[in-house]
Write a structure and sequence with these properties.
Distance between the termini: 42 Å
Oligomer: single chain
Shape: globular
Largest sheet: none
Radius of gyration: 18 Å
Length: 280
């Protein structure tokens, strides 16, 4: 295995440690972290986009929505506070998803396209598998890789080492990140979600979208994002495509999903991964 390089001190100061060596029993035995209950108040410039997206998702769920769409007040009444806050918080972070991210080898709008495809697939899968809050799955899927924006310059600097690990050691990208930096993009993404006061289910799903069984209390949501991420079109994967993302084995168990049903869903939804965003 290639030698590891020390993590840049400035990165260590700004990001939390990755509890990768802990098993689920060790994590669950600790005192639960308490988070203040907050409402995400979207800035005025974000509200029209939030109204359009919420209206689209509610309409696609089969609920009546007029041509003019729903106001935020009406959308909140339909979706509930936490769900709309999560959708607003995710939407507020999407500006960075349009970057090229050279370190991760995302060209053009591939990073954005992967985020939208994962969000739509998470929503579709949530509906198909009777998850009680598919809009929440959409919000988590949309920003599941947001931590890559933060790690990108470090990945660019360690690109050769990361690629060597992925090829020689057969590691997934996130595993190579842990090996080189001591944490992965999921950890940095969750840290950002917590800083922006997004609802805990979304932060947990972002944090554990590669290891959903660790998402205590929100394993089903994290598993939906893991599955959607794995099913997203290959051409949107960037550097992750070196070792194509596999579905994490516990994901199917968490979702009570048989392989035969998975193949049916794959065929049914994969060509519909772009519909939900009102203004792509």
């Amino acid at each position: 295995m290639a030698d590891t390089q020390p993590l840049n001190p400035s990165l260590q100061e700004q990001t939390p440690p990755l509890p990768i060596s802990k098993g689920p029993e060790e994590i669950s035995s600790g005192a639960p972290a308490t988070r203040p209950e907050t409402t995400f108040n979207p800035p005025a410039k974000l509200q029209p986009a939030l109204e359009r997206l919420a209206s689209t998702l509610i309409r696609k769920s089969g609920q009546p929505v007029g041509k003019e769409g729903l106001s935020l007040t009406n959308a909140r009444a339909v979706l509930g506070d936490q769900t709309l806050d999560g959708l607003a918080g995710s939407l507020s972070l999407t500006g960075g998803l349009r970057r090229k991210l050279k370190g991760y080898r995302f060209q053009g709008l591939a990073f954005w396209e992967h985020a939208v495809a994962t969000a739509n697939l998470a929503w579709e899968l949530g509906r198909a598998l009777d998850y009680p809050n598919p809009v929440q799955a959409y919000a988590a899927g949309l920003i599941h890789d947001i931590g890559k924006i933060f790690l990108e310059p470090y990945v660019e600097g360690a690109y050769s080492q990361i690629v060597e690990l992925m090829w020689k050691e057969k590691l997934f990208l996130w595993q190579a990140e842990v090996h080189v930096f001591g944490l992965d993009h999921a950890a940095t993404g969750a840290h950002l979600c917590e800083q922006r006061k997004l609802p805990e289910p979304i932060s947990e799903a972002v944090r554990w979208h590669h290891l959903p069984e660790f998402a205590t209390g929100h394993a089903e949501l994290a598993a939906l994002v893991n599955l959607a991420d794995a099913l997203a079109p290959q051409e949107t994967l960037g550097l992750s495509g070196l070792n194509h993302k596999g579905i994490h084995p516990p994901t199917l168990k968490i979702l009570s999903l048989e392989r035969s049903a998975l193949e049916r869903l794959r065929r049914e939804f994969l060509d519909r991964s772009q519909w939900a965003w009102p203004n792509p």
